[in-house]
Design a protein that fits this description.
Length: 257
Amino acid sequence: MQSLPIFLKLAGRPVILLGDGEAADAKRRLLLRAGARPVGEEDDEARIAIVACEREDEAVAAVARLRSRGILVNATDRLEHCDFTLPAIVDREPVLIAIGTGGASAGIAKMLRLSIERMLPATLGSLATALFNARGRIRARWPDAVDRRMAIDAALVPGGPLDPLSDADGEDVERWVAEPGAAIVASMETIILRSGDPDDLTLREARLLGRADRIIHGADIPEAILARARADAVRLVGEASSHQGLPGLTLVVKWGG
């Protein structure tokens, strides 16, 4: 990974936009959609810029001037002059999915965006907003942080009451918070690797890696596999016996054969 994906809050903030023509117009629409204020090069408050000049010499000169001021620059169709790139976006406000290829292929990013667009229901944004608004009641019902995360995970799994790929919305969140539900229990799962290629993981195995609170594995398990786990999951090298009964989901990863 050579870039860090981030989301910038641009509402009301100035962003320098240079250039004319279709490319500049497209970037202007994108900035306005994000609530930014497209401004000229003379603006002293702007910290990022988009250079969409059609002529190569104008674009390169503009990039040099802006970088000399410490401004981060995106140069349209000129990857070698970019400090950041602009992803393809799937918008289900407040849910945003950004698809980037590091500038390698806008076509691939576009096709992936279209595929994801077809997958995601229009109600996804309202589901996310309802969960945000229900934070206090969710915390009151599941005071323990591990129990709370497990309850939310269980609701969001495929087929669950809040499955993000279903038509679940705010009313479903209200019903879920109010219903008695099953007790949250600790669990331990094991996945047996057939290879070191993460593409060989089954859908269930990939989901377990994404949900586990702790991963117990041998020292020889490839990093490419472990990278599919939650970023905040605890990684432990050793045996599973001493971790039986701990709260949350413990996942044991081992080789087959």
